[in-house]
Amino acid sequence: MYSITLWEFAALAAAAVLVGFSKTAVSGANTVSLAIFAAVLPARESTGVLLPVLIAGDVLAVLTYRRHAHWPTLWRLFPAVAAGVVLGTVFMMWADDAAVRTSIGAILLLMAAVTVWRRRRLDAPEVEETASRAGRVKARSYGVLGGFTTMVANAGGPVMSMYLLSAGFRKLGFLGTSAWFFLIVNSAKVPFSAGLGLINGRSLLLDAALVLFVVPGAFIGKVCVHRIDQRLFERLVIAATVVGGAQLLLR
């Protein structure tokens, strides 16, 4: 497997716990996990190791919140996300680690700023807004960005978090829609990542050890989410996005 020390494996295990927590409690918090993986492993290869860990978290999130998904929103997003994944794959063919980090960090901070500005100007809109023409344009814009960022750095969570918050989703609807979205999208990314050489036998061996740590994280998140009120939930999601974006820019 990768030449990592015991302390480095412990850091990856802690990041895996955080993945489970983010999937069942505060979506977007796994950008911290992304930074840890990229710090311990080569940045490009770290995306291939992290992807199966994320999928394990997605499965647990779907089992927990599967009844709360808003499928009209999901169907509206998927075509744009597919286009973003293709763009991200092309980008990964030539971009170096510095270009990837700078691009994703800037996008995350921009999305957080736009969401905060919007929510200060207006009350939170209803989910039905996504059916309007403006809502469709917004869904396509966020969908392309989400597909791009999830392909190049597994960082689509904060982008989709900003979209779901701006669309007025409440806590359980947010988590249920996000859970199904990322299970489908992350699973669809596997052939692309394997084709780029990011997923291989060596990475899967490391994943086999790390996925065990996702389960306790998901359990902690499930327990904690009911103790977090809506306003605090939204602030935590935005804060996690800002932290993740800043980490990518400063590394």
TrEMBL record:
It comes from the Bacteria. Pfam families: TauE. It is a multi-pass membrane protein. One of its GO terms (cellular component) is plasma membrane. Keywords: Cell membrane, Membrane, Transmembrane, Transmembrane helix, Transport. The chain crosses the membrane at residues 48-65, 77-94, 100-117, 204-225, 232-250. The keyword Transmembrane helix applies. Its main location: membrane. The keyword 4Fe-4S does not apply. It is found in: Cell membrane. Belongs to the 4-toluene sulfonate uptake permease (TSUP) (TC 2.A.102) family. PANTHER family: MEMBRANE TRANSPORTER PROTEIN YDHB-RELATED (PTHR30269:SF23), TRANSMEMBRANE PROTEIN YFCA (PTHR30269). This is Probable membrane transporter protein.
